[in-house]
């Protein structure tokens, strides 16, 4: 565990997270979750995984509508939707929240003339 990156992140407080004290945050690429952002670029996003979800201990508790964090046979983590668990895979937790970065839409304006490069007082 010496080489594992660790740290803290701040996310907006909510009842959703308050009710799930065994939640961890995973930094991942937006494309790995199938998320396309307005600028078309790939960005880091935070995926909050509830490790105390019932599906961790009982596969029949997996919801067909939810994304989960899985470990494959080689212990690589995958966050995705699956209709059936492949052989050798296990459930690590359920995705409960994803924090996306603010990305300005290309060509969009702020709506404030003062923010324009052409604005003069």
List the helices and strands and how they pair.
Elements: H1 15-18, E1 23-29, E2 44-50, E3 68-71, E4 77-80, E5 90-99
Antiparallel strand pairs: 1-2, 2-5, 3-4, 3-5
Explain what the structure shows.
The model has no long low-confidence stretch (mean pLDDT 88). This protein is mainly β. The protein contains 1 helix and 5 strands; from the N terminus they run H-E-E-E-E-E. It has a single domain, classed as Umud Fragment, subunit A (Ribbon), CATH 2.10.109. Strands 1-2-5-3-4 form a 5-stranded antiparallel beta sheet, with no helix packed on it.
Write down the secondary-structure element order: HEEEEE
- Provide the helix percentage: under 10%
Q: What shape does the CA trace take? A: elongated
Low-confidence spans:
none
According to DSSP, the number of beta strands is 5
The CATH top-level class label = Mainly Beta
The strand line-up of the biggest sheet is 1-2-5-3-4
Rg, rounded, reads 19 Å
Write down the overall mean pLDDT.
Answer: 88
CATH fold naming: Umud Fragment, subunit A
Supply the number of structural domains: 1
- Main sheet specs: 5 strands, antiparallel
